[in-house]
Amino acid sequence: MSVRPLVEADLPQVVNLYWRFMRRREGSAPAELRPLFRELYFENPWVDSAYPSLVYEGNDGDIIGFLGIIARKMSLGGQPLRVAFGGNFIVRPESRSNLAAPRLLGAYLAGKYDLWQTDSANDISRKLLERLKFRTIPALNIHWIRALRPSRYAVYALTRGSSPLMSATLKVLSTPFCSVADGVAAVISANPFHLTESSLHGTELDVETLYECLVEFRKDYSFWAEYDVNALTWLLGFMEHRPARGKLRKVAVRDEKQKIVGWYMYYVKPGSVGEVVQVGGDKKYTKAVLQHLFLDAREQGVIGLHGVVDRRHMADFSDSGCFFTCRGGWNVAYSRKPEILDALERGDALLTRLDGEWCLDPGD
User: Fold this and answer.
1) Distances in Å between the alpha carbon of 201 and those of 1, 87, 250, 270?
2) Contact 42/8 with Cβ under 8 angstroms?
3) Distance (Å, rounded) from C-alpha 109 to C-alpha 84?
4) What percent of the chain has pLDDT over 70?
5) Mean pLDDT, residues 109-118
6) What confidence tier does 99 reach under pLDDT thresholds 50, 70, 90?
């Protein structure tokens, strides 16, 4: 039994491991998952044979464990860093008592990286990684919630974790009440979820404009993700193939002189919650950009928004009617260079859901 680099011939077994034990599904994995895994681990713009994903191979040649690694490029004070985002960590249940998991993690930590990180650890993997001296980063683990249709969002919150039948039944029964209640709430100015028309206007956010925004507005930070137009084009294309999350909407927010003062990206899923990928821009316009985002999402039929907040802007999010929680999808990190962890922990990193593995989840 041994750990070795992932090769393309391993993909059928790896995909089946993912389908059965990560997604907990029966039967064979869908045919479209295999090319998706190939694109993710062999065709992404940061792929480098020196930084492979890993498999644990049994004596009979079967793959019994997998750890997917995406080696992102980042900078600290302008100095280039290689960051290993580890995800889709899977070991067959019958093999979890042997050395598969620790050996995969040992090989992962033996790589020549500056920082090891994940932004989607569950409670079990977070505790495991903390035993390996990873740190949970408070500044990167504050999630925000904004209800746009408060009654419908309340029903959504109440039915999370319930059976699909019970959830669907309650939503159907509550729809007439929710429609009336949300309609009344929308026109009452004293309502904490009330939205007023924005003085800004939105235009389609293309890849070149997004790249320019990321370069322009990272100047106040010491740590950030490095991109070029080709990498962003690939990344957004991959993210758009996530039907479970909805349609990816990208908006540049402009003032009356057509100057870009901010931007946002989120998944539109009418009748459900939209997951926000990124909100950025001039800090003087944060509340105005949020107002534009909330109005846009409500017009798209979204009942609420979830995202991860930049700690520097928590007051603006709070003033805009957002609530905060640490609800999992943990961001944990390890580095042998203390200055890197210091930058993350003091909130001096411009890192969003665009910059890790959250946006690269293969999904169902």
Assistant:
1) 59, 38, 13, 22
2) yes
3) 9
4) 90
5) 96
6) confident
The amino acid at residue 125 is: S
What would you report as the CA-atom Rg of the chain, rounded to the nearest whole angstrom? 21
Sequence-ordered list of residues with C-beta below 8 angstroms from that of 13, at least 6 positions apart, any chain: 62, 63
Pair of tokens at residue 198 = 């924005």
pLDDT value at 251 more than 90: yes
Answer yes or no: are the C-beta atoms of 213 and 263 closer than 8 Å: yes
Q: How far apart are CA 56 and CA 147, in angstroms?
A: 44
d(CA 356, CA 351): 8
Sequence-distant contacts of 258-263: CB under 8 A, at least 24 apart? 260/209, 260/213, 261/200, 261/285, 261/288, 261/289, 262/200, 262/286, 262/288, 262/289, 262/292, 263/205, 263/209, 263/210, 263/213, 263/289
Q: CA 78, 79, 80 angle in degrees (round to 5)?
A: 115
* Chain centroid offset of residue 92 CA: 26
Mean pLDDT rounded to a whole number for the chain: 90
Cβ count within 10 A of residue 71: 19
The per-residue pLDDT for 46 is 95
For residue 282, CA distances in Å to 38, 110, 201, 290, 360 come to 38, 40, 15, 12, 27
